[in-house]
Amino acid sequence: MMRGIHDFLLKNVTSDDELAGNVESVECLALQGMYEVNAGNLRRSWLSFRRAITIAQLLGLHRGAVNSSEDLVETKRHHLWYQISRGERYLSTLLGLPSSTGSAGFPFDAAAAAAAWLSPEDLYHKNLYHISGLILARNQEPCTHSFSTTQRIGEQLDALAAQMPAAWWEIPRTILNTRTKEASAQFERIMCQIWHFELATLAHLPFMLRAATDRRYEYSHISCLDASRNLIKRWIAIHQSPRTTLVFSNLLEFQTFTAATTLVLGLLAPQRRSTDPDVLQARLDDSQLVETVLESFERLPRQGRGGGG
């Protein structure tokens, strides 16, 4: 049924330039992008969000309000721009593509802290949105400067994480699967954490393997592996909780696969001989995490086309 609705919208609404010129068409494109990303078709999703961004810019959704008072219509426009620009930028970061919004921060920062439509997780995502833009800009820099930029990005991620209480970072024992505000808040918090660790991995991955021959990159090596471990642990919590079909998406599987591959690279990289029990235990734990991911993937139904769709 969902596929039928998606195909109808694609054929009769979002592909029609005469219809795709209002806020409602931007909403349809955003829903289309969300559907494609959950199906694992990341490139198709990116195209949907990119088109939504273009139409939204023509409508002026990217501009702040002229007056300070925010009525319901203006709030809806801000929230819509927030969602489509966040989706497009995150997918651009994952796919290594330029973002149509550049590397700037969220445009409504002045009123964001007091905005009723921004939850604590939305505010955290707002900061991750800016950091993902920094990663995109870093990837366009000459190699001679990119490591110092990576260090600054890593410091911003660490500082951002430190702003949240320890309880916020705890992995829930059970993933709620009810249509309640509590379940929604828990899900958003976990997704927020996963994106944090995904961005940390993407920021440090270019320098992770260099640590074997140059101690300068040890920070990136440690940060990249630690972020990958934390991402996988949260995916396992989702996967092993009963009745959590509503929160599964191929994007999560793609992120988990990337994290597991990163751990494999860490295990296969040249190692200095060490008898430190903590180092040996960490390697054993990484092997077990990778094995758990592989066993879980073998039981998953095959659908979507991943980054190639």
From TrEMBL:
UniProt keyword annotation of Iron present:
no
> Residue ranges of the Xylanolytic transcriptional activator regulatory domain?
4-99
Q: What are the recorded Gene Ontology BP terms?
A: DNA-templated transcription
Q: State the Pfam families in the record.
A: Fungal_trans
Q: Which CDD domains match?
A: fungal_TF_MHR
Which molecular-function annotations from GO does this UniProt entry contain? DNA binding; zinc ion binding
Instruction: Say which domain of life the source belongs to.
Output: Eukaryota
Name the record gives this protein: Xylanolytic transcriptional activator regulatory domain-containing protein
Q: What is the lineage of its organism?
A: Eukaryota, Fungi, Dikarya, Ascomycota, Pezizomycotina
